[in-house]
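=== Structure Prediction Worksheet ===
Name of assembly: unnamed complex
Input type: mixed (protein and possibly other molecules)
Chain count: two
Listed entries:
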Amino acid sequence: MTEAHNFEANAISCHAWNKDGKEVAFCPSNNDVHVYKRTPGGWKVHEILQKHDLRVMGLDWAPNTNRIVTCSADRNAYVWTQGEDGKWIPAWVLLRTNRAATCVKWSPQENKFAVGTGDRVISVCHFASENNWWVSKHIKRPLRSTVTCLDWHPDNQVLVAGSTDYKVRVFSAYIKDMEEAPERGAWGCQPNLGSLLAEFPNSPNGGGWVHAVAFSPCGNKICWVAHNSSICVADATKGNTVVRLFTEHLPFTSCIWVGSNSIIAGGHSCMPLLYSVDDNGQIYFVSNLDSMQKKETSGISAMRKFQSLDRQARTESSEDNLDSIHQNTITSIRKLSPTEFSTSSLDGQLVLWDLKLLENSIAGLKIV
Amino acid sequence: MSRNNEDTSGSGFRKIDVDQYNENNFKEEDGDGGSTAPTGPDENEILTLLTQGKNVEALISVLKSAPLGCRNQQTKDSARNLTLKVLLSIKSSQIDDCLTQLDRDLIDVLMKYIYRGFEIPSEGSSGHLLAWHEKVYNVSGIGSIVRVFSDSKRA
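=== Predicted Assembly ===
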């Protein structure tokens, strides 16, 4: 049902899979990116990508073109391609920003990627073959603060970005020089890069940095999670109405769609939770996917009792472990296959979850 | 550290607010949208409800008209004092009954006032507020505590 993997990392701040799920790239919360290969004998380190000077903030692996893009607090991004000997070769990307790059995402067609930065700018980058380098175009207005998360619409022309100015914005990401003019989609049509198509405040009560955004598989809905422990869905087919659910958990840091109406969110409460959107557009909680049972307390031995008295000045033993698989904040959730997803955490674990098996084992769990 | 302090080139440049030279700067109130200058709860109405013993009605009324988005500190302070008065006049045994009549949004507002109340303790108030806190926490979990800190419209 779940598999936990350890890579001798103290923490994993972000991760991404290659196309067949046999290789994973992750950042152990420093300036390196580790690429591991799955072998019959377990995970083997394939290469450590060392090019960034400061902490890697985001990475993404384009499945079909097999390229990795990384971005970092050192204000740089690199696109890594695999040479014939299997070594990864970096190509520097000209982001033209003077603050940290915070998040990065390949477009669905893998001919562009977008980088969010602390410079209140989104760099939409594409490859200029005449100059043999990656160039970027900026989306600036009306971003008022650091861009924390991004996602691409399946049509390759629209971007959604969440920011620390408590807003989620939908932009046109059409680049005139390299692609056909976009058709009119659900979010409207603007044949200019950076045109604002929609803007949503995170909460009517103000506040709450946006931590993650995601387009639904059809691209008509956007889900986001923010620091006020909320999960919100905006629907373009319903006049951009926003439905918000203020949850009773610690804030979520990541969210993905696993069906046309199902969302998995995870974050500071260390467990992935399944939410669904019903026919009226309301969000409801379905199930906690981490069904690990509370550990039986094995009774208090005299030894434990005095140890506990000594260390904590109380007799009841308190378990240091959380009642969940992850022992620290979930930092990112990735889809691995239509029925599998993975979570990485600050406890250094990467956990694979099989939705089919979970569906069979948890009563009332249905992915819609 | 001391070497840095003695360094004649100084570290003063670190204190320069470089963001002020940016155009299009973020301002907190921009993020909240326009405020319609709420006036806060009607003190007479609330006090009348309290003297009639209609504590739950008083609580709902005072929470519904809470001037959270207001920028006038005086309005906010008087609303806070009034809300605390209502909270402290409800007995511990009545708290559960009250909470069943509040929706989730009002419970979040209530939590904001509980924390505000901790800031200005009076005789016995904190103990009573802790009783409130425990019961509200049982209903709306840690999420409503997170929202006390993360929402920019505060009590």
